[in-house]
Design goal:
Radius of gyration: 17 Å
CATH class: Alpha Beta
Shape: globular
Structural class: alpha/beta
Strand content: 25-35%
CATH topology: Metallo-beta-lactamase, Chain A
Distance between the termini: 6 Å
CATH superfamily: Ribonuclease Z/Hydroxyacylglutathione hydrolase-like
Number of domains: 1
Number of helices: 9
Helix content: 25-40%
Number of strands: 14
Order of helices and strands: EEEHEHHEHEEEEEHEHHHEHEE
Length: about 270
Amino acid sequence: MELAICSFASSSAGNSFLIQSQSTRILADIGISAKKTEESLAACGLSCVELDGIVLTHEHIDHVRGIGTLLAKKPYRGPVFTTRGTCESVAQKYPQTEGKQFEIVRSGDRFFVGDIEVNVFRISHDAAEPVGYTFQKGNRKIAIVTDTGCVTEEIFAAISDADILVIEANHEKNILLCGKYPYPVKHRILSDQGHLSNEATGQVLSRYLKEFEGSHRPEVLLAHLSKDNNSPAQAMLTIRNILEENGYYLGKNLSMEVAQREGIGRLLTI
């Protein structure tokens, strides 16, 4: 195993992923409680003290819910990598984190946590200074891109050669438009600083597969599905149809599954 990723939660209610190599363990976002984080780590045979780093994408509650307790109670003493905008916003939400072990990063930065190289790229979301991350060891790479209203060229360049791609499939556009959400909320979600639809994700994946030059079939994990405006079956159906229209087929050109809303998902390894 060069690299592996496991979802602890992925939805509008909470997001968290464990990325690991043989010797390094990184948590991407803590959108679940500190207690659930510790329970999820324990189920993987780990504890907070065995984490080598935490990276935060942005300050929205479904990505930082557990950080205040985790740092205040000190079960985790390692670095927390985040942008300055996210750091300041988190400190406003959780004053007990101010002065803690935050290390400031910016879009374009590359740094190592243990033997894993982390790359930072800008995403398009209505947050203070949101970013996404890729994780690389040797010639193996994992990319996480959620909470972005569009996939910019910067984002695509970062994720285009990922062996495992975690990508948002937040909503089915027609379900959202006909649903119960107020117009301003619908407008926010559909904007370039909102969330990716199933349709948008299908188009991104079609381009990704066209340019993917790996010697093996990539793994795609659909993430951050809306409970009200999407479902695993709907996301898979819409995206599969778009892929097939572009000549790509599940099982042949890629593997694809949906991250669980709650609880530990399947360990994906490369």
